[in-house]
């Protein structure tokens, strides 16, 4: 299930692309299928082991174009182990809401992206996330959980202050917000609750079959209760992620 729209965020074969905070690797796998040189980056060694195994399976099954490559790298989002301007594109999906010092992570994204390169950021949308927080304390207080709820305006302001230019946005996964509300209401770890199990079966069926009815429903629901908001950015040509830009970005810490 992809959150980034690859019709809007086009990736060309041979481009160097970072999936920062890759988790289980869903976007990294799509980038690999599109012929990119993919770096799947995360702090969780267990997640990265699974991603590396899937990369290998994709190669064996012939799912990737000739010339594409993929690697996993473990590290801290506040100190990315890559040279300045190394990547053509970056995906940061559902990760910034986990990072207390999000502005430092944003400055690192700016640093390792080449001038003219593009960034796709996804975070939980404000309204669905606010409902989840109201229904369940466990949802956001678990170790490694969400430390903030972004408004789109706040996310854009912080990344603009860092040095990025905004290129548009959309919402995604309108059918998924009710599932998480149910989970928060009955217990986030209560996977056996009948309501949670029934809705989960619906989501799996939708992901596998993609019927017209649910696609149309999601188009209607996304702007209202889409679980994620996706914002696209560009690093302006001539920008180098300088110390001066970093100092300017400090002013957004209070946003």
Give a verbal description of the structure.
With 255 residues, the chain is α/β, with parallel strands linked by helices. It is built from 10 helices and 7 strands. The chain has helices spanning 26-33, 45-60, 102-112, 126-135, 138-141, 152-162, 177-186, 194-209, 212-225, 243-249, and strands spanning 16-20, 37-42, 69-74, 87-93, 113-124, 165-172, 228-234. The protein has a 7-stranded mixed beta sheet with strand order 3-2-1-4-5-7-6, sandwiched between helices. Helix 2 links the parallel strand 2 and strand 3. The protein is globular and about 50 Å long. It starts with 15 loop residues before the first strand and ends in a 6-residue tail after the last helix. Mean pLDDT is 93; it is low at 242-255.
Instruction: Summarize the helix and strand pattern as letters.
Output: EHEHEEHEHHHEHHHEH
Q: Note poorly predicted spans.
A: 242-255
Main sheet strand line-up: 3-2-1-4-5-7-6
Q: What would you report as the Rg, rounded to the nearest angstrom?
A: 18 Å
The total strand number stands at 7
Measured distance between first and last alpha carbons: 31 Å
User: With helices defined by DSSP (H or I, 4 residues minimum), what is the helix count?
Assistant: 10
* Largest sheet composition: 7 strands, mixed
Helix content: 40-55%
- Proportion of residues in extended strands: 15-25%
Q: Give the overall average pLDDT.
A: 93
Oligomeric organization of the protein chains:
single chain
Q: Using the alpha-carbon principal axes, give the shape.
A: globular
Class computed from helices, strands and strand pairing: alpha/beta
């Amino acid at each position: 299930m992809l959150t980034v729209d690859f019709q809007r965020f086009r990736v060309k074969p041979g481009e160097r692309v970072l999936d920062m905070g890759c988790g289980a690797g869903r976007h990294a796998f799509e980038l690999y299928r599109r012929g990119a040189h993919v770096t799947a980056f995360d702090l969780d060694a267990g997640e990265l082991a699974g991603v590396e195994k899937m990369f290998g399976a994709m190669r064996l099954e012939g799912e990737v174009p000739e010339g594409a490559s993929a690697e996993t790298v473990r590290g801290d989002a506040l100190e990315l182990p890559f040279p300045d301007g190394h990547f053509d594109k970056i995906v940061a999906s559902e990760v910034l809401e986990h990072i207390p010092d999000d502005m430092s992570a944003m400055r690192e994204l700016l640093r390792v992206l080449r001038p003219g390169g593009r960034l796709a950021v996804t975070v939980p949308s404000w309204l669905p996330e606010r409902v989840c927080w109201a229904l369940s304390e466990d949802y956001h207080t678990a170790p490694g959980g969400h430390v903030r709820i972004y408004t789109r305006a706040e996310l854009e302001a912080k990344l603009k202050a860092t040095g990025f230019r905004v290129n548009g946005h959309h919402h995604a996964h309108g059918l998924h917000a009710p599932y998480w509300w149910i989970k928060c209401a009955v217990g986030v770890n209560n996977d056996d609750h009948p309501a949670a199990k029934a809705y989960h079966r619906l989501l799996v069926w939708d992901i596998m079959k993609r019927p017209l009815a649910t696609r149309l429903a999601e188009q209607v629901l996304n702007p209202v209760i889409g679980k994620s908001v996706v914002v696209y950015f560009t690093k302006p040509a001539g920008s180098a992620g300088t110390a001066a830009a970093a100092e300017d970005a400090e002013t957004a810490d209070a946003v």
